[in-house]
Amino acid sequence: MLKYILAWFPMIIIAIVNGYFREKFLVNYFNKLQAHQLSSVSMIILLAIYNWILFKIFFPASVNQAMFIGLIWLIFTVTFEFLFGHYLLGHSWPNLLNDYNIFKGRVWIFVLIWTSIVPYIIYRIQE
Hints:
Elements: H1 2-6, H2 9-29, H3 32-57, H4 63-88, H5 93-98, H6 108-126
């Protein structure tokens, strides 16, 4: 499992690059909410590509391991998002929680759902 835990760290870089693309490009052509939504979609696509490549190199031993990988990545992602966002970037807790409000068009929750299920999906496709 260590290799899958370590494989989570490049996902931070993918997310930072995706966020940079949103802030430097998408916001010039779309409003902030639309840029957030498009960035969420692009993050889902990037995670699928990353998982596809990762599992070509390190294929999980079982479907249960693939599901466990997704759970670990979800926990790491949410923990990182809140700790990094609040303590290093200085975002307020309400501001961080705002990304989870789908009633306001915030769709980040779908990225988190995808993060947790993409290992299972890619495992099933590649088995």
